[in-house]
Design brief:
Chain lengths: 306, 356
């Protein structure tokens, strides 16, 4: 049986007294697009640093591509690629010089590097800029080069730490589509981002981190279903709605229209029927990942376990 | 008003870095104390032995009869140079045949060879001889002409003393500063993560950087040497390979400082101010601009802690006296010691550097 792409057991990473990551466990299968979400300081970047062998865990077992990140760190690095919000590029070197330099550290020969670079940079629409020094490129173009740099060695697992940060919508869309295509080609991708819309579109597995812990982990669909118990419902009735007594919260109420937050939709509808209120129109809203994210992290802040 | 707001913000940012504040206060204190106390103290008298290679027996006899306590006689010029290289004498003089007789005729000449480690003594001797010989400043007739020379007979100038020291200084400081700047910059930019995430041995990253900085430092040192030779008539009397080897040894003796500073602080600005606070006193204490022997005793003791002192001394002997490694063995052993300690420190620093 093929091992997991990533296997994390009871990972802790402390910086002196700061518990950056405080006992997390999760697995990522090969071919997954796994999104790691969380507010600033949740421990996402520290987790990525441990997984990419840039930081040593305080305790716990962490395997990437089947190799231990401490004992077999070099083998781990052979299998991974990293793209972060901070560009891993040298400003005074050209696009191609950067790519050749980093790729040669993976023992690739120049011919292979150039062949792969032409293919990748063309896909990202920047091949014509290959001889331009990086400092002269726009932020979006730099990030495309940065992604190409990480992909030339053809890693099995790609870590994308906030890859769309600070990019314009066009560059964001190009990179998003590119990430989706990579995943479709079978690459395992670990994505951290603040843009939850990206996660909704791309990820097949999501972990939400807060205060160094994973507070929820599942597929985006399951997470939505799980948190669906609180639903936003818009109701239009045939007559003005009077005073109501039900388990929920009225968000808006004007004459025949009302927007409510309910825990159990069926129970709410039953209550309306019992009050002889006839429903003309009803519309429910699926909670977005953003709703779930905000709910979970605010519950944690309030000390409520979800 | 906006100007003050910006200034206040900058000052506040500066004050938040404890290391920066400490080193910014330490630097002027060290500088003032250093410049106030370490300037040459023994001006006006020659302390140490004076060596003579005299082909004039009468001159030799006269000095011996006069019982000049700090005079030593050698049987050959090589013996004299050997004594200069071993720091057994502070100045050497080559007295030609018939010197005494020529004095009476007013055409006597004497070659004074300064010790490269302390040329002041030679300069002083060159000034004292004519007076002692009875030259009158008012008369145009000089009984003795003093030639201040290098061992090959070429005219000595103070740059012969300074050039080797400046070479060592440029190479050592350039590499240590360059290394600290290069590593901290890569960490700030994030490219260090990019290097560390590749499957190479992480030691290669620092060694690669050391090699690049060493090449840069050597090129700069060679430029110093080239200018010294072209414009100031400095000659390399010893081996060029010994010169380069000594420069490399000097660089490695100090490289650990650059790495440990880089490992201790994350910001490039703080690393730079720390390096300056260390390298600036080193520049003055190591006898680059004026001889260590002329400094007060306490400053001489301080100079011993800086590898630059030994590198500059060894380079001077190789360049201006043309001696081989056997004459600079003490300097080389001390530099090797520094290089070993420095490499150990660099290893510890590097481990700290890659830990997160």
């Amino acid at each position: 049986m093929k091992s997991k792409a990533i296997s994390v057991e009871s990972l802790k990473k402390y910086y002196k007294k700061v518990k950056a990551v405080n006992g997390i466990s999760f697995d990522v299968d090969y071919g997954d697009l796994f999104a790691l979400l969380g507010p600033n300081g949740a421990g996402k970047s520290t987790t990525i640093r441990v997984l990419t062998t840039l930081a040593a865990p305080t305790s716990g077992n962490v395997k990437v591509a089947g190799y231990d990140v401490i004992r077999e760190d070099k083998k781990v690095r052979q299998k991974i690629g990293l793209v972060s919000d901070r560009l891993i590029l040298y400003d005074r070197l050209t696009v191609l010089e950067n790519i050749v330099f980093f790729s040669k550290l993976y023992n690739l020969d120049k011919k292979t590097i150039i062949t792969r670079a032409e293919k990748l940079l063309s896909l990202l629409h920047i091949w014509e800029w290959k001889n331009t020094v990086v400092s002269k490129l726009s932020t979006g173009m730099k990030q495309k080069v940065n992604i190409a740099r990480a992909l030339i060695p053809e890693p099995d697992i790609i870590f994308l730490d906030e890859p769309m940060l600070g990019l314009d919508p066009e560059a964001t869309r190009t990179i998003r589509n590119f990430i989706a295509a990579l995943n479709k080609d079978g690459k395992t991708i670990i994505l951290t981002t603040h843009v939850l819309y990206e996660v909704e579109l791309l990820a097949n597995k999501v972990a939400i981190m807060n205060k160094g812990k994973i507070v929820a982990i599942d597929t985006p669909r399951n997470l939505r279903n799980h948190f669906k118990r609180e639903e936003i419902v818009e109701v239009e009735t045939d007559s003005p709605i009077g005073d109501l007594n039900f388990d929920g919260e009225i968000l808006e109420k004007i004459d025949n229209y009302m927007k409510v937050k309910v825990e159990d939709l069926d129970y709410f509808l039953k209550e309306l029927t019992e009050m002889n209120i006839k429903i003309k129109n009803i519309k429910t809203f699926e909670p977005s990942l953003e709703d779930i994210f905000i709910k979970i992290t605010s519950d944690e802040k309030d000390g409520v376990k979800s | 008003m906006k100007v003050f707001m910006i200034a206040w913000k900058d000052l506040k940012t500066f004050l938040r870095s404890r290391t920066m504040v400490i080193f910014s206060i330490a630097m002027p204190i060290i500088m003032m104390l250093m410049l106030g106390y370490i300037f040459p103290q023994n001006v006006g008298k020659i302390s140490g032995k004076v060596g003579f290679y005299s082909q004039d027996l009468l001159f030799k006899a006269t000095i011996k009869v006069a019982n000049v306590s700090n005079a030593i006689f050698f049987n050959s010029k090589e013996g004299l140079i050997h004594a200069l290289a071993k720091d057994e004498i502070v100045v050497g003089a080559v007295v030609p045949k018939n010197f005494t007789a020529d004095m009476a005729l007013g055409k006597a000449q004497i070659d004074v060879i300064p010790n490269p480690a302390n040329p002041q003594a030679g300069i002083m001797m060159a000034q004292m001889i004519p007076t002692m010989a009875g030259n009158s400043s008012s008369s145009k007739t000089k009984k003795v002409k003093v030639n201040l020379t290098n061992v090959d007979g070429s005219a000595f100038n103070y740059y012969d003393f300074m050039a080797p020291g400046i070479m060592a200084l440029v190479a050592i400081m350039s590499v240590a500063n360059g290394l600290a700047a290069s590593i901290t910059r890569e960490r700030e930019l994030g490219t260090m993560d990019g290097l560390m995430v590749t499957p190479i041995n992480r030691g290669n990253i620092v060694v690669g950087k050391i090699v690049a900085q060493t090449v840069r430092g050597l090129i700069q040192a060679i430029i110093v040497l080239g200018i010294s030779m072209l414009f100031f008539n400095v000659k390399i009397l010893g081996s060029i390979w010994s010169t380069i080897l000594l420069l490399i040894l000097g660089i490695f003796s100090f490289i650990g400082v650059g790495i440990i500073i880089t490992a201790s602080v994350k910001e490039q600005e703080t690393a730079q101010i720390m390096m300056t606070t260390i390298t600036f006193p080193m520049m003055f204490f190591s006898g680059i601009f004026f001889p260590v022997d002329q400094m007060p005793k306490f400053a001489q003791y301080i100079s011993y802690i800086f590898p630059l002192t030994y590198a500059a001394d060894a380079l001077r002997k190789v360049i201006t006296l043309g001696v081989g490694f056997s004459y600079i063995s003490t300097d080389v052993i001390v530099l090797l010691g520094f290089a070993i300690v420095s490499s150990l420190v660099a290893t510890i620093g590097f481990k700290k550097l890659i830990q997160d």
